[in-house]
Each structure stands twice: as C-alpha cells, then as structure tokens.
Amino acid sequence: MLHTVNKSPFESSSLRTCLALARAGSDILLIEDGVYGGLAGSAHSTMVEDALKSMKVYALGPDLKARGLAEDRLIPGVQVVGYDGFVDLASANDKVQSWL
Amino acid sequence: MKFSVMVNEGPYTHQASDTAYQFTRAALAAGHEVFRVFFYHDGVNNGTRMTTPPQDDRNIVDRWSELASEHELDLVVCVAAAQRRGIVDADEAKRNGKDGDNIAPGFRISGLGQLIEAGIQSDRLLVFGD
Prior knowledge:
The structure holds 2 protein chains of 2 kinds.
Chain A: E1 2-5, H1 14-21, E2 27-30, H2 45-51, E3 56-60, H3 61-66, E4 79-81, H4 83-92, E5 96-99
Parallel strand pairs in A: 1-2, 1-5, 2-3, 3-4
Chain B: E1 2-7, H1 16-29, E2 33-39, H2 60-71, E3 75-78, H3 79-85, H4 90-95, E4 107-110, H5 113-121, E5 124-128
Helix pairs in contact in B: 1-2
C-alpha cells in the first residue's frame, strides 16, 4: 500500500500514526508540508529512520524545492521522486491511503 | 491504469488543489486514464469561473478547465457541498431562484453517487485534502 502524508510532523501526528500502522513493505510518500518529515537530524528523524528498515520512504521533489530544502538534507535512504514518480507509486501499489 | 481523484480542499488554501492537479496532469501525461475528478467539501470552490487571482499567480480554476478540455476530463462538483457554498450552474440557479450561475467550463454538478461510482470503476482513488 502507498501512504501519502501531507503534514509536517511538527504540525500534526499523521506521519507518526502512519508509520505506526503501515505494514512492512509499504511505500510512504511525503508530499506538501509532509516533506519536512524527511529531514535528517530533526526531532522526528528517528521514526523515519526506523521505518526505513522495513519500508521505502519517498519525498516529492517539487515540494522539497518549493520549501528550499536541498536533497542532501534528507535522511539517507529517503528517495526523491517527481509527480511522474508519484503516479508510478500509485500504480505499483494496489491501494493509496492519504493521511490528511 | 484507471485513476480517480477526490479534492476536498478549496483552491488557494494550502496545497491540495495544486497537488491534485499536478498528479492528474502527470497521470494523463503517462498515458493513464483519469475516470473522474470529484470535488467535495471546500473543494467545490475549484469550480467557480468567477475566480480572479492576481495576474502573476496561477489560475487554479482555469487550469482545471483547460485540462478538462484537452483530455475530456469529467470534473464533478458535489451538489450539496456546492449549494452551501454558492456554486451553481444554470439549472440549479433557476431551480433555486438565483440571479446567475458561476460554474466553470468543464465542470458539472452532480451527487455523491458519482464519487461511489468513481471508486468502483477506477483501479485507484486518490484523496487530496487538508
């Protein structure tokens, strides 16, 4: 299943809840303010680092760029995709769950 | 693959209308079918042609209308959510005694059944909101 998270973990608990409930093998896509959850060295990095042991985590490139966040600031293992990659992830997974 | 998209947030609010549009455009560009875009709650505000953003800002409503015209997209606005927010087509205006309509080109007003049908008919339903 693909999970999309569009809120910063500093604003909402949706990323924490998503990661707690997502099964191993899930894909997590951080979009909009959700991309802040992909930043390395933040107060919320640990839960994403733990998730990366059993899931794949992606961040939407245009939303990183819109916020002035360079890709080298991401937690190692978080992959950057564009909207075309978002479409590919939505196709590859049998369901899409939006954490709003 | 057949996608449908649901938009629950108004334009110029946070980012959901923009993300939904960019996703829809990318899906069409990749050769996928988009069965329907359904606008619910404040998302119905994506469908008024009276929207007049500053010239240097994107026109979210026109952008949907143009995409609909290019790809014969089905843009559906929930009737109950639309009535509450003053989004009307000619028929609804007449029925409710209003002095004009404001639905944007390419949009049509219908009911929640269209969302259920989109969920049944499509391989994936993506929800964008706040």
